[in-house]
Amino acid sequence: MISFDYYQKTIHCLKQPKSGKAIGIDTKFHFWCKKNFKIDITSGIEILCSTKNGRRIVVIESYFAILKDIHKKTGHGARDKMGHEMNEHYYWIPAQVIDIFVQCCTSCIVRKSVKLPVTRTAIISVGFLTRLQIDLIDVRTRPDKEFQWIIHCRDHYSKYSWGYPLVSKEAQRVADYLLTLFYQFGPCKILQSDNGRDFTFISDIYT
User: Fold this and answer.
1) Do 16 and 92 share a domain, yes or no?
2) β-strands 47-50, 131-138: how paired?
3) Taking every annotated instance into account, which residue ranges of this chain make up the domain Integrase catalytic (predicted)?
4) Which of 42, 131, 166, 198 would disulfide-bridge 156, Cβ 3.0–4.6 Å?
5) CA-angle at 168, arms to 199 and 110, nearest 5°
6) Cα separations (Å) of 19 from 25, 29, 47, 48?
7) What is the per-residue pLDDT across 45-66, written as a single tens digit (0 to 9) for each?
């Protein structure tokens, strides 16, 4: 990690053809700077870049702004997705810093699914659509136009999945997509969901 003051000191060092006490630049530091960094003035301003890959060196003071921009650009992506995008342009932002940023993102915390305790009783299915598991996926932080939810349906026996986009999580909309699925493949024997009240009224709508 490098601070803004150290960044400026490195640029100043790179501009000097020689080192020594006369100009106040340590010989070892001068050699290290020449070996690892270069100055890019393509954009009209002096930008410190790595000689290894040509990417921009990021100072500590700019971490938050850059991480926020990349996190938004990647649709609130996790560390690996952000790291891949970051490596296209920037250098010297530790993976631990990205982890901390993602963990502190309010939108990601809200969207993160709650881990349920593992049941000790095995769920047994004897055929296709004997048990259909349904769940809502919240994509409000990265919607596709008006669609902010996804209804995920999964046959427990075959592990086959269906996904339908939703404008809202109203039970009526969910029930309409379930009917579409049932008209095509037939009704399931058991409809299972962990969403509780979100799906409480589905059985009342079509019974």
Assistant:
1) yes
2) unpaired
3) 113-207
4) 131
5) 85
6) 5, 9, 21, 19
7) 999 999 999 999 999 999 999 9
Task: Residue 156: give its domain's CATH number.
Answer: 3.30.420.10
Dump pLDDT digits (tens) for 59-103.
Answer: 999 999 999 999 988 888 888 999 999 999 999 888 999 999 998
Alpha carbon 40 to its chain centroid, in Å, reads 30
The sheet that has 47-50: what strands, in order across it?
A: 37-40, 47-50, 56-57, 90-91
118 domain-assigned: no
How far CA 85 is from CA of 7, 81, 100, 126, in Å, comes to 23, 6, 17, 45
- C-beta of residue 186 within 8 angstroms of C-beta of residue 129: yes
Q: The tokens of 137 are what?
A: 């996926």
Q: CA 55 to CA 80: how far, in whole Å?
A: 18
Report d(CA 51, CA 35) in Å as an integer: 7
